[in-house]
Design goal:
10 strands, elongated
């Protein structure tokens, strides 16, 4: 049954646009928050994997076992080197760039010298490689450092490979004081 517009009852309610219910509003908010969280998480993972700071260890094929830790702080990078005998050596540098040569001088901390540890000084010279996306295999290649450790007149060549899981844990530990 069709009625012409001319004969419509004036008291008949007009159809109104449906307003959003509170559930639909909260659903939209939740979806936006989820998308924002996923974008933030993706950016954080990319930054963490692309950053050259982290935990590096020798591959095991070298004659010496070496562990290098590079932890980014707000204004500098704290470096620790565990190699050979004695205490862990430390150094602090302003910045580490993946495209520049590394030249870090490590010393035994003063607190260990007071406990009768031998005073040591080791220079790490090296270069980063492998810190980019491998588009042929759609994979992120691990950072590696091809380095020379110089102590006195002795020079040792080592290849240090970054451990991703330890690197992420170390960065989180450095920024959350209750974990350290």
């Amino acid at each position: 049954m069709t009625r012409s517009l001319r004969y419509m009852d004036k008291n008949e309610p007009k159809k109104r646009k449906k307003s959003e219910t509170p559930n639909e509003k909260s659903l939209k908010k939740n979806v936006l928050m989820l998308i924002g969280s996923i974008v933030f998480l993706g950016m954080w993972v990319h930054w963490t994997l692309a950053d050259v700071t982290g935990e590096y260890t020798s591959s095991g094929y070298d004659s010496e076992v070496v562990r290098l830790s590079l932890v980014r702080r707000a204004t500098n990078v704290k470096c620790e080197l565990s190699w050979g005998y004695g205490a862990i050596m430390e150094a602090t540098v302003n910045e580490i760039k993946p495209d520049e040569e590394l030249n870090i001088v490590f010393h035994v901390p003063e607190k260990w010298l007071q406990r009768n540890q031998d005073d040591r000084s080791v220079v790490l010279e090296g270069r980063f490689f492998g810190s980019q996306m491998d588009m042929g295999h759609f994979a992120f290649r691990d950072n590696e450092i091809d380095a020379r450790l110089i102590e006195g007149n002795h020079v040792y060549k080592v290849r240090l490979v970054r451990n991703r899981i330890s690197s992420i844990y170390r960065q989180i530990q450095a920024h959350l004081p209750w974990l350290g």
